[in-house]
Amino acid sequence: MERRNARQTREIVVPGDVLDGTGMKPGENAYLSDGKVRASVMGVRNVFQNTVGVIPLKGCYMPTSGDTVIGVIVDIGPSNWLVDIGAPYPAPLHVNEVPWKVEFGDTSRYLGMGNVVLLKVLSVDESKKIQVTMKDSGLRKIEGGRLVKISHSKVSRVIGKSGSMISMLKNMTDCRITVGQNGMIWIDGDDENADVAVQAIKMIEEKAQSGNLTDKVKEFIESKLPQSEEYDDEGDE
User: Fold this and answer.
1) Which of 11, 31, 67, 233 is packed most tightly, with the most Cβ within 10 A?
2) Does one domain contain both 93 and 73?
């Protein structure tokens, strides 16, 4: 398998955008027009040797200002961390956007490779460069529990109308559950209960278009955790 050039520019393009005007050849999902290589699909600009093309997004999560997301630290620099939030490109988290006073070069003391964090998207500019922060209420490093990944397009079904579905999941499984807009979900509770919560969330993703989904999920949880009807409606995060 060919290795792509590690120095390629990871930027989002839409059909018609100019990928190159310096004489490179069109690669996959690209075409030549007026001496310039242009994108034929929406995706990530991809350079390999002397060709330039586009990797289709295929429903990839596109961050929006104000989104709360769950990400994983994938690289560490002297003054920032790179966080994988499921977007086509990593999100840089600067030391000025964390709740600790971090000295230059001391970043790894606070967040290490593979650590999971709850973030908010501050902004996304016209070049698709994004800024994220941990300096807001509830944002934090996530420890313990387990992560579940679903399609970001199904997040609204997991949350439900006015938060009805997620409240039911929390109360019936007695788990703490935090849902990221990027489709990453954190679940923390007793092993058996957390297993059922994971299964219920996967069920919601699979049957997102079906009717009476709340009733179906409720029946499923009750069949797995008969005592779940006894849980009260105390608030959770």
Assistant:
1) 67
2) yes
Per the model's pLDDT, the better-predicted residue between 112 and 54 turns out to be 112
- Residues 31 and 106 both lie in one domain: no
d(CA 148, CA 132): 21
Residue 30 lies in a domain: yes
Contact 90, 130 (CB under 8 A): no
CA 187 to chain CA centroid, nearest Å: 15
pLDDT band at 8 (very low <50, low <70, confident <90, very high): very low
Q: What residues form DSSP beta bridges with 92?
A: 82
Among left, alpha and beta (phi > 0; psi -120 to 50; other), residue 144 is left
- 118 close to 215: Cβ distance less than 8 angstroms: no
Q: Could you tell me which of 185, 191, 203 has the C-alpha nearest to residue 148? A: 185
Residue 233, pLDDT above cutoff 60: no
Alpha-carbon separation of residue 18 from 22, 40, 45, 97, 195 (angstroms):
11, 10, 10, 34, 48
The pTM (predicted TM-score) of the whole model is 0.73
User: Residue 16, SS3?
Assistant: coil
Q: Which residues contact 60 (CB under 8 A, 6 or more apart)?
A: 86, 87, 88
